[in-house]
């Protein structure tokens, strides 16, 4: 990729001359789709990003949120006021590393983790949790399995080595990702008002200090590489654009960053990601309306004879750019030495332009704000997606049940999350495999330290602090079938995941993935997912406080489905939650209820993906979704609730199959295949010892009796005149398809 003729002309007009090679390369990368959001920024104003909890919203390396006090943690955000929030902050961000993960799945995914962790660090926060949302081609394709295994290995290796637990996420398989997988990673960090740092340069005369690994030639042109379609030979030709990670250096950098923040040595910070040093340093000073003077030959390097362009644009990992008071530079260098990290004083913040020299020669002299924000936006044509009609297949219940329960997208993801150390740090109160993860934040209750593992792992004191509930993912079947309503469903489904554990949403970040936006049908689908996601998040009274856009996810196999990954953060008082498993000990005294209404359609379902046919997308609840989620959360927290599980991929049939254990079965009747397999979100399956109390609590949310709990560990499902039965062991065997195939 090179600077287009139109962009080159704009740059010449701005500079009054031809750009130098280094300047042209900087503009090429920082004006790329990946950095400048030229096709998506005009759409992003649809998102509401303000709220009482929002300390820093979109535009920084990560968003910053004030946590509610334990007493207010279960009150819906729309009903809180400023006094309901304490002085404990969390950071929240999400990034994509899609193209690199196709070219080199291990390093591409690993460095995606490293990048979002450094975004967290640059806000003065300590990373406490990761979530990954992964999308691959059909599981029966060898290449998809190769990418899947490599990506999971890369995430687990990097996350485990740096000691940040991967606590949740999602995995989907769909033929639309055959030529372009998606790797979206979110990170949560913990900080306070006193420790908060931003990516806005503060004061002319302050030093710019580069701390971390030495700069090499890896990752050159990564930003521009991520802004074009993947070519057929991408796995070989684009390998130099993929960064190589070193998690052990990242761990040292995490601890060094903590020491720098502890001693109040950082005026502003930015991690080195897309466009390397050139991107980080120019954006840092541009946000402050300032400039910089940088001597590129002072950058510590690991390869000989690097050119100024290479030093500027290499995306070598595990590096941070800090703005530091000149009086503190020596102490910063001492701390870098303590943690065995490289450290270079590369220049200073100025009131002038962004200037870089190399061996005494000026190679860059541009206005920083123009470089960072001057890219013109694209005006693209969009074709509205078509609505599907109903053409349902004729298939027997047993065949459909077998196909849907054992489908890779609905199957158990244990093979994935058992490779992650999801309990390191002692905060993980609810581990992967449930609807949402829960992290223990004792600090919200005013406790200084969090070193009692029993509190986090067992919920020993459910009134200690704030439980941070986390969910992330999207459903490509939904957004391929109906981009607008499918995106609305993605937001509602993630909120339902939180509600199933008794939590209410606080804020969201999104990773908006699409194909080549220059294709009107692709841009039409992308526009629809933005509008749908924004509308439902607003209806949920959940601000979208940051995110990432990844376009040009297109290859010789065609464009990906529009994929709006949403990472949602919620809160509850304490750390306990009802499990997503039936309890046979109270079988005789309990009943299985469905709380929430279905949408009476199979569009976008795994059922149709497996057995064929089409249908309209289910009708979603539109009467106050925020109240619906609050009601579901209160049902989950009710003293009579024994188990709770949301209805999503695979519909009620899969939700019931997942609830069954060796000691607890279910006997359930449903009217037809639509009721059994439609995937309308905003519904919970609940085992309760007091169905009347739950129905009264649900009030205006429909509640239905599904059946009874048994003690034989068998699911008996009657759908109309058809019957299917399976033991918990048989269900596990069907749902272990990923582990069985990859063993």
Could you describe the largest sheet, including whether it forms a barrel?
Answer: 7 strands, mixed
Low-confidence blocks of residues: 449-462
Shape field: globular
Mean pLDDT: 93
| Strand proportion | 15-25%
For this structure, the quaternary state is single chain
Q: Structural class, judged by helices and strands? A: alpha+beta
Helix content class? 25-40%
State the strand order across the main sheet. 8-10-7-11-9-12-13
**Rg measurement, Å:** 26 Å
Descriptive report:
The chain is α+β, with helices and mostly antiparallel strands and 743 residues long. A hairpin with a 6-residue loop joins strand 14 (428-430) and strand 15. Helix 9 (247-262) packs antiparallel against helix 12 (329-338) and helix 18 runs parallel beside helix 21 (625-637). Residues 449-462 have low confidence and may be disordered. Strands 8-10-7-11-9-12-13 form a 7-stranded mixed sheet. It has a 7-stranded mixed sheet with strand order 23-25-22-26-24-27-28, sandwiched between helices. The protein has a 6-stranded mixed sheet with strand order 1-2-3-6-4-5. The chain is built from 26 helices and 28 strands.
């Amino acid at each position: 990729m090179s600077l287009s003729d139109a962009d080159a002309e704009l740059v010449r007009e701005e500079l009054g001359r031809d750009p130098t090679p280094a300047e042209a390369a900087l503009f090429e990368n920082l004006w790329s789709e990946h950095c400048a959001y030229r096709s998506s920024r005009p759409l992003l104003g649809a998102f509401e990003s303000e709220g009482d909890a929002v300390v820093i919203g979109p535009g920084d390396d990560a968003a910053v949120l004030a946590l509610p006090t334990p007493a207010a943690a279960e009150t819906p955000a729309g009903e809180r006021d400023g006094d309901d929030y304490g002085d404990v902050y969390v950071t929240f961000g999400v990034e994509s590393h899609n193209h690199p993960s196709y070219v080199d799945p291990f390093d591409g995914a690993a460095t995606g983790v490293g990048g979002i962790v450094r975004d967290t660090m640059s806000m003065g926060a300590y990373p406490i949790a990761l979530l990954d949302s992964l999308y691959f081609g059909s599981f029966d394709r060898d290449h998809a399995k190769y990418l899947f295994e490599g990506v999971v290995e890369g995430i687990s290796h990097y996350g485990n080595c740096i000691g940040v637990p991967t606590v949740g996420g999602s995995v989907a398989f769909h033929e639309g990702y055959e030529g372009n997988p998606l790797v979206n990673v979110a990170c949560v960090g913990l900080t306070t008002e006193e420790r908060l740092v931003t990516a806005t340069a503060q004061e002319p005369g302050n030093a710019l200090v580069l701390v971390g690994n030495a700069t090499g030639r890896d990752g050159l042109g990564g930003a521009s590489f991520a802004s074009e379609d993947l070519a057929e030979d991408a796995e070989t030709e684009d390998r130099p654009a993929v960064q190589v990670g070193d998690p052990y250096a990242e761990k040292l950098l995490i601890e060094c960053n903590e020491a720098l923040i502890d001693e109040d040595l950082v005026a502003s910070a930015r991690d080195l990601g897309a466009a390397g040093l050139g991107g980080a340093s120019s954006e840092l000073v541009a946000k402050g309306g300032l400039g910089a003077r940088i001597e590129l030959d002072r950058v510590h390097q690991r390869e000989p004879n690097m050119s100024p362009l290479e030093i500027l644009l290499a995306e070598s990992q595990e590096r941070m750019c800090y703005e530091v008071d000149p009086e503190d530079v020596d102490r910063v260098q001492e701390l870098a030495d303590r943690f065995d990290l490289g450290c270079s004083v590369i220049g200073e913040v100025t009131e002038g332009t962004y200037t870089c020299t190399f061996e005494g020669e000026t190679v860059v002299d541009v206005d920083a704000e123009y470089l960072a924000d001057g890219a013109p936006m694209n005006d693209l044509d969009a074709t509205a997606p078509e609505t599907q009609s109903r053409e349902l297949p004729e298939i027997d219940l047993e065949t459909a049940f077998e196909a849907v329960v054992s489908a890779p997208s609905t199957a158990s993801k244990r093979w994935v999350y058992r490779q992650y150390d999801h309990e390191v740090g002692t905060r993980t109160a609810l581990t992967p495999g449930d609807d949402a993860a829960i992290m223990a934040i004792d600090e919200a209750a005013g406790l200084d330290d969090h070193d009692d593992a029993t509190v986090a792992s067992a919920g020993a004191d459910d009134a200690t602090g704030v439980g941070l509930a986390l969910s992330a993912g999207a459903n490509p079947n939904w957004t391929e079938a109906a981009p607008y309503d499918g995106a609305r469903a993605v937001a509602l489904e993630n909120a339902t995941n939180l509600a199933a554990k008794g939590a209410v949403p606080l804020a969201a970040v999104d990773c908006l993935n699409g194909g080549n936006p220059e294709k009107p049908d692709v841009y039409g689908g992308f526009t629809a997912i933005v509008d749908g996601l924004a509308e439902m998040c607003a209806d949920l009274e959940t601000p979208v406080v940051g995110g990432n856009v990844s376009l040009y996810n297109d290859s010789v196999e065609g464009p990906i489905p529009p994929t709006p990954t949403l990472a949602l953060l919620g809160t509850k008082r304490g750390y306990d939650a009802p499990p997503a498993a039936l309890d046979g000990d109270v079988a005789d005294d309990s009943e299985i209820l469905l709380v929430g209404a279905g949408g009476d359609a199979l569009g976008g379902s795994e059922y149709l993906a497996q057995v064929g046919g089409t249908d309209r997308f289910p009708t979603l609840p539109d009467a106050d979704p925020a109240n619906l989620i609050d009601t579901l959360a209160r049902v989950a927290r009710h003293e009579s609730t024994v188990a709770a599980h949301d209805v999503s991929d695979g519909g009620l049939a899969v939700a019931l199959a997942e609830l069954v254990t060796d000691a607890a079965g279910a006997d359930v009747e449903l009217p037809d295949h639509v009721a059994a397999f439609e995937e309308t979100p905003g519904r919970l399956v609940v085992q309760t010892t007091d169905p009347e109390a739950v129905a009264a609590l649900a009030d205006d949310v429909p509640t239905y009796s599904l059946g009874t709990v048994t003690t034989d560990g068998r699911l008996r499902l009657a759908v109309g005149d058809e019957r299917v039965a399976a033991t918990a062991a048989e269900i596990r065997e069907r749902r272990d398809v990923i582990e069985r195939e990859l063993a």
